[in-house]
Amino acid sequence: MARPCLALLAVVSVVAATRNADIKGLFASSLSPETEIFLPTDVNYSQNVTQRWDIFTEPTYLGAIKPATDKDVQSIIRVASRLGIPFLATGGGHGTSSTLSRLRQGIDIDLGKFDSVNLDVNQNLLTVGGATVFSQVIDLLYGVGKELRVGSLQGLRGLLIDSLVSVRLITASGTIVTASEKENADLFWGIRGAGYNFGIVTSATYKVYDATNHGQVVNGDFLFPASANQSVWQVLQSFDATLPAQLALTAFVLPNATTRAPLVAVNAIFYGTEAQAKPNLDRFVAIQPILSNVSSVPWNKQLDAAFFGSASGACVRRNRVNIYSLALERTDVATWTAHFAELAKFYVKYPEYQGRFLAERYPTQAVLAVPEDATAYPHRQAKIQLNLEGWYTDSSLDNAATAFLESSRAKFQQTSGFTELSVYTGYAHGDEGPGAWYSSGKLGRLESLKQQWDPTQLFSWNNPIPSL
Questions:
Q1: Taking the model in full, what pTM does it have?
Q2: Which of 33, 58, 196, 258 is 20–30 Å from 221 (CA)?
Q3: Each residue's pLDDT tens digit, 450-468
Q4: CA-CA distance, 38 to 65, in Å (whole number)?
């Protein structure tokens, strides 16, 4: 009867030793020679391991393993799960949810070597690795007259998950599976909306399209003083029921560096000619911006042009951002104006606070053309994704900023047009809960899929689906 206890003690001893030290000794022998293992004490750890975009709340790691092959990922999952060591896969490093910080002393499976790009122009298919980022593909696609669905193309092309053809996934058991409409269709349904919960995607294939308007877009930027904020919100409201499929709008509030008075910036992207865009952009011109610029640019250079050329630095790493967000079905001018006034006071009271108010108003025509039950994504009716971004470096502001942001989110929810809090999981703070992330209507099916594909909850660090 003592032998099972001795075996258990042996496992506990191995895990304890691992948490104190050397993951190389436990993992290296089962990995390919091209795989790399890094410890936080290594001199160049931050240069060799993909860094997170946000460090407001973050997981902690014993170290990072950069697998070279699918078999390496399989081996890491099997060894880590056998020893009870938590792990998390890192692709682009952009996860912001506070749920990620529940992972302590785990393994960072850094997919940095999975950054392949394969474009089949004849079949209009793009296959990318699990860590491939948009900057790797946009010039390639533009060069051959193609485009991939990005946020501003929602009205014409739908959501990015609507262009997904298949994924190669490594599951909790360490098994490699393909998920598509024809193979593991239920899993494919769940991945498109709750993909964090089912495994590690090492490659994905997307449909690409012929470039709209020969690859040219109109980029319009407008800057308004604080006094014009209500007028800006009224213009946005005027598009609630009539936003053209070719037009995407982003509104952005930030403090003036000198006076601390908030400024309102609006970026408009129109997939067409300047003459076609003009009637829509004239609504912003009519409220007399203090600065404006309208020009046609190649679609692959639009990000470089947006917000007067200042948007391209948005992906700088290791920011400290306390983010709250929610989806809106409509623009309530009174709520937006009241929040702006409160934000202006907060800027003055806390000079270190560089928080931003970001509203993405993207068209929904192609999004709504996909049946609601076709994917696990729950918020097709959303017209606006609203981010309340608390940018600051002084942790002593945490309590004040959190109270302000939580209160603001609650006020926007009251006039959002949704009966329950609805949050895009990629923008979630982490405190909202599964009903807000995945909707009460789809949660039951997702829970069943979770039980089937990840019964031991290995992939439950990022906005997790609860177990049955």
A1: 0.93
A2: 258
A3: 999 999 999 999 999 998 8
A4: 6
